[in-house]
Amino acid sequence: MDFIIDASYLAAAILFIIGLKQMSSPVTARRGIVWAGLGMLLATLVTFGTPELLESEHFTVNLSLIIAGIAIGGGYAWVSGKRVAMTDMPQMIAMYNGMGGGAAATIAAVELLKAGEANPGAGAAAYLGVDVAILAILGAVIGTISFSGSIIAWAKLDGRLYLNKIVPGQHIVNALLAIATVVFAILVYFSVDLTTIAIFFALALILGIFITVPVGGADMPVIISLFNALTGLAVGFEGYVLGNAAMIIAGIVVGSAGSLLTHLMAVAMNRSVANVFFAGVGTGPAAAASGEQEMKEIQAQDAGILMAFADQAIIIPGYGMAVAQAQHKIWELVQLLNERGVKVKFAIHPVAGRMPGHMNVLLAEAGVPYDMIYDMEDINADFKNTTVTLIIGANDVVNPSAKTDTSSPLYGMPILDAMDTDNVIVVKRGRGAGFSGVENPLFFADNTKMLFGDGQKAANELIQAVKEL
Asked: Which residues 6+ apart lie within 8 Å of 78 measured at CB?
């Protein structure tokens, strides 16, 4: 029986790895999710046959709780997954990621409480062993921080929280909280009891909240990715504590993939992860536009004519397109332009939207072929040979201040070089700054015209303009 269980866990881990690999490409992402889901189903079913469950004196109660938990959690996830709007996908990812961290922290709490009951006054190491105790405590800290931090990320993304700091000297307070958390982690290791454990977890929860609140809105994609990596690590650590191979492998795979993605996104912004936590890009007021510059408006009829007679057009989508749910209309516009012989490409910045791959998901939902979607490094050279670039709902990822203004919070971040295009049309609801709160000089440039209004309404007007030619 043990051999079957171990072999099944190994098979589940292989399915996780295959699924994750296939998720790296839009072409195979859907299949990858299915493979990973099968791995999770296998691991879950096999767990019902483990000796720890079958030989438990509370077998009936434990089995009932497990089934009830799967039914409630799975049922809610199924319903919410079906109903969630694509614009709310980042919030859902943040919340579900936090639940994973919370689950890992709960496992650690149970094991530490067992240690306290078995050896009152003694440390966790006395009951669990040195290596297991260390990993249990690390998993507890990491999982708890990921849990509370992800909830704050969800609240910010969902427009429910606008705080940029909780107390004066926020970063100093955060450092003190971190020190206190480490102190109580050491206390748990050497002398575990209910009060110490409760304070330890409370400090970790508060720390997760306090370190996430100051993070700027423009940095949320990086934070979501980082918490995903932390959740994976916590699951891997707690898998070791439980002696569960599937949890160990799955946690390590998720943790390493999330860490790599976080690093790549930070590189794409030319910033370190530490800078993301401390810089607070997107928490301050928008910088004022220099001089007496004014945005030059264009009507949809004129914009449609300009695009219809272009040799090549590039479309840069952003979160504004997601909010307006305009991706289907944009694809309809592209099809009309293709019929007129206009070559159209989509340009995607690594941190466009509110989570990694957000724009790719939206465009795939609309039916845009993958070979029309280009990453930043693959398309930047094309802007100089492009007649018109249509920017819909994007701001910071095309801001030339990142290249020219050393005082800008965005300085050094690689951007899409839309300013090199002959003509730039920006679809924007208003005249305000972007999510980072940084004014965009591109919007005042001589080759830029603003098409004000909701993204879907603007796309409809552009479609009508092209059809009338």
From this structure: none
Query: Would you give the DSSP letter of residue 412?
Result: T
Q: pLDDT at position 286, please?
A: 47
Cα distances (Å, whole numbers) of residue 96 to 76, 151, 426? 11, 9, 34
- What is the rounded CA–CA span in Å between residue 134 and residue 451? 57
Residue 92 dihedral angles phi and psi, to the nearest 5°: -65, -40
The residue written with tokens 């931090």 in the block is: 149
- What region, left, alpha or beta, does residue 341 occupy, with left being phi > 0 and alpha being psi -120 to 50 degrees? left
Mean pLDDT of the chain: 87
CA–CA dist 209, 374 (Å, integer): 36
Using the structure block, give the residue that is written with the tokens 């100089």. 384
Neighbours of 246 (CB within 10 A): 26
φ, ψ dihedrals at 392, nearest 5°:
-120, 100
Establish whether 396 is a catalytic residue. yes
DSSP 314-360: EEEE-HHHHHHT-HHHHHHHHHHHHHTT-EEEEEE-TT-SSSTTHHH
Query: Active site residue: 88, 396, 420, 422, which one?
Result: 396
User: What is the per-residue pLDDT across 62-105, written as a single tens digit (0 to 9) for each?
Assistant: 888 889 999 999 999 899 888 887 777 788 888 988 999 999 99
Residue entry with tokens 């934070």: 223
Q: How far apart are CA 342 and CA 336, in angstroms?
A: 9
User: Is residue 283 pLDDT above 70, yes or no?
Assistant: no
The residue to which tokens 């609309």 are assigned? 366
Q: Which residues of 429-457 are buried (b: 16+ CB within 10 A; e: fewer)?
A: eeeebbbbbbbbbbbbbebbbbbebbbbb
Q: What distance lies between CA 95 and its chain's CA centroid?
A: 10
Residue 287 structure tokens = 């910088």
pLDDT tens for each residue of 107-155: 999 999 988 888 777 888 888 889 999 999 999 999 999 999 999 999 8
pLDDT digits (tens, 9 = 90+) for 363-419: 988 899 988 999 998 999 999 999 999 999 888 889 998 888 888 877 888 899 999
Return the number of other C-beta atoms located less than 10 Å from residue 226's C-beta.
26
C-alpha distances (whole Å) from 390 to each of 154, 395, 438 are 30, 12, 20
Amino acid at the residue 167? V
Q: Which of 397, 393, 391 is nearest to 421 (CA)?
A: 391
Name the percent of the chain lying above pLDDT 70: 94
Percentage of the chain lying above the pLDDT 90 cut: 45
